[in-house]
Amino acid sequence: MSLPERVLVTGGSRGLGLGFCRALVDQGSFVRTIARSRTDAMDELEGTGRFEFVQGDVTSDADIERFLEGARDFDALVNNAGAGIDGLLAMQSLDAIDRVLDLNLRSALVCAKWFVRARLGARKPGVIVNISSIVGIRGYAGLAAYGATKAGMLGMTRALARELGSKGFRVNAVLPGYLDTELSASLGMEQRGQIVRRTPLGRLGTVDDVTPVVLFLLSDAAAFVTGQEIVIDGGITC
């Protein structure tokens, strides 16, 4: 399985994004990531000489432009940056709704736009992996805005696969379920227990459960895979 030489990853400072960066660097790829703040975990990655950190916010077009400088020389893009807000939609502020739409969906569209444009200009194909969520295919109370962004990423994935297939691009999506990461740390023990009981495999997922699937989709082993949505949730949606 051969991985791309150079990969762009949004939101690579922690959680899934950091896991993707580590795995890619370990496999010999050069990775550039953008995140709002630096974390200590990045020191080890930078020491390899195959990692570059761009400090910025993917909701800023200017920061995205800096992140995607020289994108024509990168083979793949992983749209991972995102955050969740929960609570009843009727009680959420318009600012909070706008923020989650900009961070989770608009940023992915903008990054894909400029990545594709750069690769087309270089007459080279590319690979895009969008990190969506099972919330994009199942209804969960209190996650209307978040679910809308993750469902939107799936529509984006299918449309771009059709739009760019003739140019040699592949575009796929990964839909993680409930993971044992910082994002789930706010769940109470009762909530976590309920999720585990509803999951056929009997546990929360981990970054290591998701990373191999993303590496597969980025690699030449997935050369005939595009427009697909791969669920990684321990069976909770089955």
Structure description:
The chain is an alpha/beta fold and 238 residues long. It has a single domain (6-231), classed as Rossmann fold (3-Layer(aba) Sandwich), CATH 3.40.50.720. The protein is built from 7 helices and 7 strands. Strands 3-2-1-4-5-6-7 form a 7-stranded parallel sheet, sandwiched between helices. Helix 1 (15-26) crosses helix 7 and helix 4 packs parallel to helix 5 (144-164). It is globular, with a radius of gyration of 17 Å.
Please tally the helical runs, counting DSSP H or I stretches of 4 or more residues.
Answer: 7
Provide the gyration radius in Å.
Answer: 17 Å
CATH superfamily, please? NAD(P)-binding Rossmann-like Domain
Structural class: alpha/beta
End-to-end distance:
29 Å
Overall number of strands = 7
What is the helical fraction, as a range of percent?
A: 40-55%
**How confident is the prediction overall: mean pLDDT?**
94
Molecular shape? globular
Low-pLDDT segments: none
Largest sheet: 7 strands, parallel
Specify the CATH class.
Alpha Beta
Q: What fold name stands as the CATH topology?
A: Rossmann fold
User: H/E element string?
Assistant: EHEHEHEHEHEHHE
CATH architecture: 3-Layer(aba) Sandwich
For the largest beta sheet, what order do the strands appear in spatially?
3-2-1-4-5-6-7
Number of self-contained structural domains: 1
Fraction of residues in β-strands: 15-25%
